[in-house]
Amino acid sequence: MMELRRSSHHRASPLSCITDRPGSELLTRNKMSISSILSADAIDSAIKDCQAPESFCPKKFFQLCGLSKKSPQDVKKVFGILDHDASGFIEEKELKFFLQRFCPGARVLSDKETKNFLSVADDDSDGRIGAEEFQAMVLS
């Protein structure tokens, strides 16, 4: 029987845990985590503010979590984390699980909230949010 040993020189790379739906299992990515950019307390405050159904407001969320005060580079890093499929865009299906990218136990956005979020950010009306559109919405 072969024995598996952990190498003493093996180091874990920085990973962020991102909830992958519908299976609810965690998917790890070699990306910076949102909590390395925003404080855990600010994220918690923003999540708590929109716990009730139909209470999510993107601009208020970004203000409460502190993202609207970050640099354009940090906003683009967060965009990269939220772009779950690495397509270069945040699509409607990804927006539904937006809050769970910040906190795995958070609720799913309703269809109405998701469509509202998309309409607020999708300047070119292509049905998805690009990095520049995301940055413009967050920093405006």
TrEMBL record:
It comes from the Eukaryota. Pfam families: EF-hand_7 (PF13499). Ca(2+) binds at D83, D85, S87, F89, E94, D122, D124, D126, E133. Keywords: Calcium, Metal-binding, Muscle protein, Repeat. Transmembrane segments: none annotated. GO terms for cellular component: cytoplasm. The keyword Calcium applies. Gene3D superfamilies: EF-hand. Residues 70-105, 109-140 form the EF-hand domain. The keyword Metal-binding applies. GO terms for molecular function: calcium ion binding. In muscle, parvalbumin is thought to be involved in relaxation after contraction. It binds two calcium ions. Belongs to the parvalbumin family. This is Parvalbumin.
